[in-house]
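Hi L., both proteins are below.
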Amino acid sequence: MSDDGLSYKSLHSGRPDQCGALCWRVTGSGVEVLLVTTKTSGRWILPKGNVKRHETMHECARREAFEEAGVTGRIGKKALGRIEYLKRSLGRRLSVSIFQMLVTAQEDDYPERKFRRRAWFGFAEAAERIEEADLRALLLSSLEQDRLPTARPGSQIIG
């Protein structure tokens, strides 16, 4: 491990420690983002987690979105970006590749439903609720740079 707490894997192989999903949907009032709470502190975050052996990064993001938030949909194969955050339980920073997912279904029964809350927010409110600076910046830049579709019929994912 390096002095700044990053794992050798994320510093030298280029592969992030984790994957995450920026889950979104189009409603009559615009694009909404799905956030979930952490298991321990209840902070609002995007669904994210560890990559399993023989799993691509975007497959990991799709799996985490279902496990943590109960959503499925069309996921981009190209990452929107990469963030770092402090994993408090480990006491070190982790690198996470974030993939966008257009949500097409939301289930009431999913693996982590008893441990997390989930809620839909507009971009501005989602950004206000997220404490991690890197994640907030990625969310806002995705909107500002028009990297996610606006509320229009036939919205598509990027990548």
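That was the first. Here is the second:
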Amino acid sequence: MRSASRNAPLAAGLRWLNALTGETRSDRADMQLGCVLAFVAGAVNAGGLLAVGHYTSHMTGLVSALAQDVAFGVVSAALIGLTALASFVTGAATCAFIVNWGRRAGIRTYYALPLLIEAALLLVFALSSRGSGPEGGIASTIALLCLLMGLQNAIITKISGARIRTTHVTGIVTDIGIELGKLLYWNRDTAVSPPVIANRAKLRLLSLLFLAFFCGATAGAIGFHTFGNQAALPLALLVFLLGLPACFRRQAAARN
């Protein structure tokens, strides 16, 4: 009995992690996973700025900078930007490939597999030196971070049916503004046209994602400034724990 009571918190934690990345989805699980990944994205974005001087999840700014470099003939910077863009797309494509392959092959852990890959990429970043060296080293670090950010954004996009994105806040803030506009709208004459009603659940979700990203960026700025790239180690561990139940599910499936 004592052993069972001691193992109860561990079992509860594994059930929670299993729900976050399991095949059966719920709005609550999507929200919780989205907030965790938004925190990671904010921290990695801050780490990328300190490590290589670039935000590595901000594709809008990256494409704008790439176009400017092409316009003014800054070839080396344009090549770095093009590599970063290709890496982000490759990460998203890799996630889509894994998820669709897993579904067709009947592998129930297909959502967790991209998370384990992301954890491995974060570990590589954590063990690398800060990007103050030659241009080639900076380019490879940018490519690595963009690859894992593209992978992560595609994970939560696939899981939530494109309701949640975690690596940028432009869309989040836009949707918050839209829902606030609906919330503040004065429905004077509902007999003429249907009332304007804000989606409060969506507004809550978006606000939590924004807060998680902000907190992650704050923690990342402090952590990477203090510890360098090694600050990515707890992020790698966190993402690994999200994908960990996949190992147990596969073992259970193999025994059955």
